[in-house]
Amino acid sequence: MAHALGKPAHVFGRDREWRALADFAADLRPEATLGIVSGRRRQGKTYLLRSLAAATGGFFFEAAEATEAESLRMFGAALARHAGSAADFSFPDWENALRYFADLAGPDPVPLIIDEFSYLVKASPALPSLLRREIDGRGPSQGGGSRARVLLCGSAMSVMGGLLAGNAPLRGRAGLEMVIKPFGYRDAARFWGVSDPGLAVRLHAIVGGTPAYRRQFVRDDAPAGPDDFDSWVVRSVLNPDRPLLREARYLLAEETDIRDPALYHSVLAAIAARNETWGGIANYIGRRASDIAHPLNVLEDAGLVVKETDVFRAGRTRYRITEPLVTFYETVMRPRWADLELGLGAEVWADSGPAFGSQVAGPHFEALCREFARAQGRRVFGVPVGEVASGTVTDPGNKAQIEIDVAVFGPARPGEPRPLISLGEAKWGKVMGLRHVERLRRARALLTVKGYDTTATTLACYSGAGFDPALAAAAADGDVLLLGADRLYA
Ligand SMILES: Nc1ncnc2c1ncn2[C@@H]1O[C@H](COP(=O)(O)OP(=O)(O)OP(=O)(O)O)[C@@H](O)[C@H]1O
Ligand SMILES: [Mg+2]
User: Fold this and answer.
1) Could you name the CATH architecture of 15-179?
2) Looking at CB atoms within 10 Å, which of 182, 196, 264, 447 has the fewest?
3) Distance of CA 321 to the CA centre of its chain
4) Does the beta carbon of 44 sit less than 6 angstroms from any atom of ligand 1?
5) What percentage of the chain exceeds 70 in pLDDT?
6) What is the pLDDT of residue 434?
7) Is the fold of 15-179 the same as that of 363-489?
8) Quick one: pLDDT band at residue 106, thresholds 50, 70, 90?
9) 318 CB less than 6 Å from ligand 1?
10) Distance from the alpha carbon of residue 76 to the mean position of ligand 2, in angstroms
């Protein structure tokens, strides 16, 4: 393999993705190969692939929503530009265009990238089959020879998923399937240039790890420090002249192909208000449970919502919103939309403190603590970590439910009790005390009875607001682990 292609300095993070793409692009096998890159909107797919094309001299084409004839004309123009021709190429049909396209690669491997491929497929449904013919026609049985490294990229998850699903023509052809995800919360803090952990959590609770929200969407305006946060929210997020205000609405419209956004927003609002079970959502929006099956499926396919199973109560699932901005929109923006459009962002924000704390930052902090336990669990607890999840422990004696925010399991061993490494509670805005530990202790006892291996279960308190002296003393005795927001970023 040729020596590794360096990642351009302007590309932040994405080391693993860059390595995989560079490897794919430099693959020396004498046959055409196919890769698929997908991901939600604004995560940096185009940015990464354009950078790859620039670094390798590859071909890059970004399709637009257009008719077949116009798309073909634009594709011909892009190929002509790539070839340095003054006149645009005009192809009679896609078959001819794709043949020329796949022939761009000679004996040296070169990436041939089509971005927003799903737009092309919409206008020309036969395209995947035609492309498959071109790729197969340059396979080993044909004497190979072409080192075309075809990369298809697109964002409508259902469409891109459809390219590879079931008996789709390109199924089984892709040697690379990459999903570009938002930056992890630690990378996101670095990308925003934020070092204060409390600020980083609050910021991430609004904009998450979507790269574009750090750049064009705020014109590179990041909060200068913790004291600038409120002002930043008002000037950059709750501002009718800035795109973040409407972004959550566009996301829903762009990622899904829906005609009735009202129902979808109601479903999302229900989840954001922590009515997270199927029945809870239906009840909140006043529909029958069967009515929300379809919207929930669509939202799941689009990657905006995920279904999580309660680790302690089999069969109980809850839905969570994956994009923080959507939770923020449903909680803070949507209820006050008219005021926001009038430019009353400062007032709205002043009124939103409690809702932001309890419905946005609080649950978000719990999710970050789980992410932390997944990534750092081995270092924190000193043993290998398996599943990390939340769950509910039923306490029949007290007729209560104990919510466990961060349950950490060891790797499962068949035939043995499931090892429970840690039970944790996370509180964003509350100073934690001994009563939190008492509840965790009770949960541990109940789970022991239920057959979990709790011999080495650590009780953990995660707090964004600190710990009271009694709890700090108990922790000093080695009984409990205390983790502040700074630990999440250490
Ligand atoms: N790795 C990165 N380093 C620095 N900036 C990035 C990175 N990834 C994305 N960005 C910024 O985010 C912006 C949006 O990225 P891009 O347009 O590539 O997203 P996309 O996934 O193609 O979105 P869409 O699906 O809407 O086309 C880029 O213009 C760039 O400013
Ligand atoms: Mg793009």
Assistant:
1) 3-Layer(aba) Sandwich (3.40)
2) 196
3) 10
4) yes
5) 96
6) 96
7) no
8) confident
9) no
10) 20
130 CA distance to ligand 2 middle (Å): 23
61 strand-pairing partners: 114
Q: What SS3 string covers 125-180?
A: CCHHHHHHHHHHCCCHHHCCCCCEEEEEEECCHHHHHHHHCCCCCCCCCEEEEEEC
DSSP secondary structure, 306-363, as one string:
EEEE-SSSTT-EEEEES-HHHHHIIIIIGGGHHHHHTT-HHHHHHH-HHHIIIIIIHH
Q: Which residues pair with 459 in a beta bridge?
A: 423, 480
User: Residue range 463-482: average pLDDT?
Assistant: 92
- Six-digit token string for 49: 């692939």
CB 153 less than 6 A from any atom of ligand 1: no
| Mean model confidence pLDDT for the chain | 93
Q: Tell how far the Cα of 43 is from the centroid of ligand 2, in angstroms.
A: 8
SS in 3 state form for 371-418? HHHHHHHHHHHCCCCCCEEEEEEEECCCCEEEEEEEEEECCCCCCCCC
Q: How many whole angstroms separate alpha carbon 434 and alpha carbon 480?
A: 10
The topology under which CATH files domain 363-489 is Trna Endonuclease; Chain: A, domain 1 (3.40.1350)
Domain extent listing, the chain = 15-179, 186-362, 363-489
The CATH class given to the 186-362 domain equals: mainly alpha
481 vs 400, 457, 473, CA distance in Å?
Answer: 25, 11, 11
Asked if residue 427 has its Cβ within 6 Å of ligand 1, the reply is: no
